[in-house]
């Protein structure tokens, strides 16, 4: 019985200690005789219970308060003007102890703008116990609470973040959150001083979120100082999302300093999203600094989307530095979309820096999908003006999609695209008679069906019939002074198609639409089994040192056993390095073997060895081994060195020996 009583006392003590650890601090700045009201509209819902101990200023008397939240709040009159730190602690159980705290829309009581404007700093990190029960935390519940931090600082125009304010480390155990988790959390915090501190971040181990996860989280935070800190990010392990995931997250954050940091990104492992996934995520972020981070992208593995997927995502981002990064793209594996899929995605992005990158294009959809879904590509690149000439063409972005059955104004008023007059009216063009261009064939070493140098193609029409070249090349092996007879073999290339680039990225077939708005080349790609460079017979007094492209053995092609793919009929020459008769004065006192060597080189000497250097043929030292005590035998591992000819310098107490070796 006594033991049980001791355990109960320890448990009660632990609970009390936890209660003492939980607290929430923030600052208000008031005038003399002004009353501040602690808001009780937590998560936009008056009526939540609270039971607190409140200290209205540092060193001040504590006040106990309990009840159910109302829009009136809990008031305190400050006699003197100043900035005061308010501390709230649980006075009783910890479960959801701060859930009643928070502002909401409205113009009376604690939610009046005059009261919100008194809050000048939020100090304490926020913990799961403030909005969850301990049981929910322990079980990582499958039915987490809704509205945990929704609207908390809504409309606090004079707010700043204290240096330690963030979601605390206790959130690391949380993988699920409910609906409206951080919706409108800082919406309207538009004062000139509001900014993220250096540590603020969302809980990063979340994998499943409900609806409106961070919708409007920083909407209208348009003060001059506001920008992302260097670490802020969406949880990258999220795989399941609801509707309105990041809807209007940074709506009209148009301050001069605002831009993405280098790590911010949408979760890339998502495959299915609900309606309005990234709807108006950054609209009218038209400040002078705003542009995409280098890695920011839509999740590329998405196959199913709802309505308004990326509608208005960057609408009106017309600042002087805004442009696409090199990777941003719409998901290319989508075949079914909702209404307003990419409606207005880059509408009015008319800044002088804006460029469409080299990979962005519309996913290929059916005629039915484009016609029956509302505004799939409506005004996607509308009204970009002429400030910057685009390196991409409108037709290459359209990506062979069928023409809509009515005018979607996709490229209307965007004459920065040189080909806009020639695309169909229903894509926002003028349907003018398209120009023709010369396409020149680069056969890349073909030996057959390679006599046609070029053809004429019509812009925004298909390429039509293309040559099907062949390639057979002869490689002759000249053993260059050995007794072995020269021989040859034939390499047969397998034609792998035509490409727009010599790096073979974009394939061109007879049905490919011409989207390059100029004369251009297309390149033949060749596949096939490479030849294996032969191993020459041994030659007395010499070591084989590789195959070269000329008799003088200047340009190394490769060593025996290496793959070799010729680009023309050619002769390869074996190089030989003399291995006998070198440094004969020391031949009876030192041995270096094997030669050629592949991995371990053994050195034995009648004299004591002080140091060994390995130099390349140009004389550069590539390996050094010093010996604290003199010795006569040693081993050096040369497996990390490239194949080639090297000089081994052995420093002994009697002199220096230099010998050539071949590394295979």
Short description:
The chain has 664 residues and is mainly beta.
Keywords:
flat, 23 strands, five-stranded antiparallel beta sheet, 664 residues, 6% helix, mainly beta
Describe the structure.
The chain is about 5% helix and about 25% strand. With about 675 residues, the protein is mainly beta. The chain folds into four domains: about 200 residues, no CATH class; about 170 residues, no CATH class; about 140 residues, no CATH class; about 80 residues, Immunoglobulin-like. The strands form five sheets. Strands 8, 9, 10, 11, 12, 13, 15, 16 and 18 form a nine-stranded mixed beta sheet that branches. Strands 4-3-6-1-7 form a five-stranded antiparallel beta sheet, with no helix packed on it. Strands 19, 20, 21, 22 and 23 form a five-stranded antiparallel beta sheet that branches. A hairpin with a 2-residue loop joins strand 22 and strand 23. The longest helix has 20 residues. The termini are far apart. About 5% of the residues have low confidence.
């Amino acid at each position: 019985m006594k033991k049980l009583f001791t355990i109960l006392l320890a448990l009660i003590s632990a609970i009390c200690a936890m209660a003492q650890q939980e607290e929430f601090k923030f600052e208000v700045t008031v005038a003399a005789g002004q009353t501040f009201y602690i808001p009780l509209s937590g998560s936009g819902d008056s009526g939540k219970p609270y039971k607190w101990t409140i200290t209205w200023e540092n060193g001040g008397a504590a006040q106990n308060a309990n009840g159910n939240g109302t829009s009136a709040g809990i008031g305190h009159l400050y006699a003197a003007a100043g900035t005061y730190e308010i501390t709230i602690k649980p006075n009783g159980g910890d479960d959801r102890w701060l859930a009643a705290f928070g502002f909401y829309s409205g113009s009376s009581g604690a939610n009046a703008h005059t009261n919100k404007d008194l809050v000048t700093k939020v100090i304490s990190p926020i913990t799961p116990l403030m909005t969850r029960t301990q049981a929910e935390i322990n079980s990582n519940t499958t039915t987490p609470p809704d509205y945990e931090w929704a609207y908390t600082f809504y409309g606090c125009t004079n707010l700043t973040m204290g240096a330690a304010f963030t979601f605390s480390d206790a959130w690391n155990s949380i993988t699920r959150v409910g609906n409206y988790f951080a919706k409108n959390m800082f919406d309207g915090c538009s004062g000139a001083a509001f900014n993220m501190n250096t540590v603020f971040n969302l809980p990063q181990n979340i994998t499943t979120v409900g609806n409106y996860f961070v919708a409007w989280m920083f909407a209208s935070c348009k003060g001059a100082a506001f920008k992302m800190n260097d670490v802020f990010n969406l949880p990258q392990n999220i795989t399941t999302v609801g509707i309105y995931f990041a809807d209007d997250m940074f709506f009209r954050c148009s301050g001069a300093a605002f831009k993405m940091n280098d790590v911010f990104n949408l979760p890339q492992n998502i495959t299915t999203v609900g309606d309005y996934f990234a709807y108006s995520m950054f609209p009218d972020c038209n400040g002078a600094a705003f542009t995409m981070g280098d890695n920011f992208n839509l999740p590329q593995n998405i196959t199913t989307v709802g309505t308004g997927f990326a509608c208005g995502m960057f609408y009106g981002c017309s600042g002087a530095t805004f442009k696409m990064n090199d990777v941003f793209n719409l998901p290319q594996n989508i075949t079914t979309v909702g209404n307003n899929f990419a409606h207005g995605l880059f509408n009015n992005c008319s800044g002088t820096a804006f460029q469409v990158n080299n990979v962005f294009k519309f996913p290929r959809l059916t005629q039915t999908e484009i016609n029956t879904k509302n505004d799939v590509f409506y005004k996607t690149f509308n009204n970009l003006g002429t400030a910057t000439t685009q390196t991409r063409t409108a037709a290459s972005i359209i990506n062979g999609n069928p023409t809509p059955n009515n005018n979607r104004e996709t490229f209307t008023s965007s004459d920065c695209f040189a080909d806009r007059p020639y695309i169909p009216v229903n894509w926002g063009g003028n349907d003018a008679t398209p120009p023709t261009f010369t396409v020149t064939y680069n056969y890349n070493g073909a030996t057959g069906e390679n006599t046609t140098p070029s053809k004429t193609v019509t812009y925004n029409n298909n390429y039509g019939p293309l040559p099907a070249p062949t390639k057979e090349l002869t490689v002759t092996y000249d053993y260059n002074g050995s007794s072995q007879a020269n021989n040859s073999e034939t390499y047969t290339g397998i034609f792998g198609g035509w490409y727009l680039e010599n790096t073979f990225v974009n394939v061109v077939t007879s049905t490919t639409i011409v989207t390059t708005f100029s004369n251009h080349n297309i390149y033949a790609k060749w596949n096939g089994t490479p030849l294996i460079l032969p191993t020459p017979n041994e030659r007395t007094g010499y070591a084989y040192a590789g195959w070269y492209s000329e008799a003088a053995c200047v340009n190394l092609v490769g060593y025996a056993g290496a793959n070799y793919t010729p680009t023309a009929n050619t002769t390869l020459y074996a190089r030989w390095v003399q291995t006998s008769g070198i440094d004969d004065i020391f031949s009876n006192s030192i041995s270096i073997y094997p030669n050629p060597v592949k991995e371990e080189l053994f050195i034995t000497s009648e004299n004591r060895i002080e140091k060994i250097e390995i130099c390349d043929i140009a004389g550069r030292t590539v390996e050094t081994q010093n010996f604290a005590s003199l010795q006569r035998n040693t081993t050096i591992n040369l497996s990390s060195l490239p194949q080639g000819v090297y000089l081994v310098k052995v420093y002994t107490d009697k002199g220096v020996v230099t010998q050539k070796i071949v590394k295979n």
